[in-house]
Predict the structure of histidine kinase.
Amino acid sequence: MRLSEHYTRTSFYITLAVLVIGAVIYYFAISYIGTQQLDRALQQQLTEAEEYIRSNNGNPQQYDLDRDHAVFVKTYKQLLQKRFFDTIYLKPKEQRWEAGRAVEDLVKLKNSNYKVTITISRVGQKNLIELISIITLALLAGLLTVLFITNKYLLNGLWKPFQLTLKEIKQFNIADVDQFKGKPSKVDEFTELNEAIREMSLRVTQDYLSLKQFTENASHEMMTPLAVVTTKLDTLIQDETLNAAQLAQIADIYSSVNKSSRLNHSLLLLAKLENKLIVEEESIELDVILERKMLQFQELMQNKNLTVRYKLHPKQISASKYLIDILLNNLFGNAIRHNVPGGEIFIGLDPYQLSIKNTGIANALNGQQIFERFHKSKDSQGAGLGLTLVKNICQHYGYGIQYQYDEGKHAFVITF
């Protein structure tokens, strides 16, 4: 959920809660004020009734009010607590029951006491409260609607600079010449964010360029003496005066130098992949490339007496031919090197995936560790970077790579 949606939902709920609580308080306040007004009117009517009766010294039942209902009941009580209360009463003229507000008190006439109950209608007050409540609810709904529209559409423009900044961050490539610029904004926080990101991108780019330059220089400086050593060894091997022991030692040195050269090349390639420095792509017929690879590794497979079975469907991909060549070289070399004499290799290609299976040891490998750098078995003569390169190349093009083991066959499956 977007931040603007969180803000809209939170402000909507808080505003709704505040307005509902306020409306309830407002309703009870209006009801209380209306009740107090009715009680004051009742008190006035009660006072008028008492003055009328005492001044006329007549029958209290003759007292009548225009819109009120007065009942006098003779009582022997000497004291009666005056009280106001809600009730319903039969309106004499209309002969219908209505909600009312009443007051009850004791009136003395000569030597007699009367309990007087005066009731007045509260229908008008009730209708007024209902009208006020309807208006309040309508205003509440209108306010919430305006608030929702304002937050969702009008205020959404405030987040546009942030969204543009986020888009530019996603498109930022440390190897590009163009640096992060950020979109100008009137909001101080967004301006500070753009400035902080700009400074951070400059530091990262400078560190990257420094590291890139160091890596390239180090790689170049390493390759030069390795090439010299290789040349000297080639010359030395051709010396006919060397005995078998000396030739064996020179061969070991030659192998170590070649391994160091391959290791240097692999590490440099990994650095380029991780920093997305290889961007060239072309259309590749993968089934044709696989057929060529089988011919290329045919001699190595024959040396171990391996049987190759394959089922290739036409598949076209867009990638760097250089990287695909490295990927297939590592997968084919892995399938041959870790196979058993007289074993099998099966290569399958369909529009969705490429799988390379080979017979090998009767135990499954760790599907996570085999793709880690420098992870290799005790008997392996490689540098431990082959499968790491395979994984990084797959990630570079968005492919999935998975190791599987089934009935003595080890498989690497690439999902397009």
